[in-house]
UniProtKB/TrEMBL annotation:
<dbReference type="GO" id="GO:0008270">
    <property type="term" value="F:zinc ion binding"/>
</dbReference>
<keyword id="KW-0479">Metal-binding</keyword>
<dbReference type="GO" id="GO:0000724">
    <property type="term" value="P:double-strand break repair via homologous recombination"/>
</dbReference>
<protein>
    <submittedName>
        <fullName>ZSWM7 protein</fullName>
    </submittedName>
</protein>
<keyword id="KW-0862">Zinc</keyword>
<keyword id="KW-0863">Zinc-finger</keyword>
<dbReference type="InterPro" id="IPR007527">
    <property type="entry name" value="Znf_SWIM"/>
</dbReference>
<feature type="domain" description="SWIM-type">
    <location>
        <begin position="77"/>
        <end position="115"/>
    </location>
</feature>
<dbReference type="Pfam" id="PF04434">
    <property type="entry name" value="SWIM"/>
</dbReference>
<dbReference type="GO" id="GO:0097196">
    <property type="term" value="C:Shu complex"/>
</dbReference>
Length: 141
């Protein structure tokens, strides 16, 4: 998990969650208060997305990966954990413009899904991955 743009305390919490799930597969109850403290209002909705198995890792034959998260509204958002970015409006506004949050619920759901081993996986062709990336650029433009 490459979350180098997150504060050290957030990275440490995600490492602890990953270790706990690897060792005993117990729930996030142990971590929920710390998640809420560090990630604020994104924590509970992100956990809901993880519980609903809304996070899918797309991997191409070359090894390139990106994540798609089915949001609570039914819209599919593309997330890039390698550069800590999501295509949702909340990320653009709360994270980038106002710096009110570390991340949106979709990116947090990606990190939590990785840590908890709850991420769905889908192999796609290089062309499919490129088309997803190009569609995102068109949506933004």
């Amino acid at each position: 998990m490459d979350s180098s743009t997150l504060p050290a305390v957030a990275e440490e919490l995600l490492r602890e969650i990953k270790k706990a799930f690897r060792e005993s597969s117990h729930g996030t109850d142990t971590f929920s208060s710390r998640l809420k403290f560090i990630f604020g209002p994104s924590a509970v909705p992100a956990l809901d997305l993880v519980d609903q198995r809304s996070v899918t890792q797309l991997r191409s034959p070359s090894g390139r990966t990106l994540y798609q998260v089915l949001g609570s509204s039914g819209k599919l958002y593309t997330c890039y954990s390698s550069c800590h970015y999501c295509t949702c409006p909340a990320f653009g506004f709360s994270v980038l413009q106002k710096s009110e949050s570390l991340l949106c619920k979709h990116i947090l759901a990606v990190y939590l899904s990785q840590a908890m081993g709850a991420c769905q996986e889908l192999s796609v062709s290089e062309e499919q991955l490129t088309n997803i990336l190009l569609a995102e650029e068109e949506d933004e433009g």
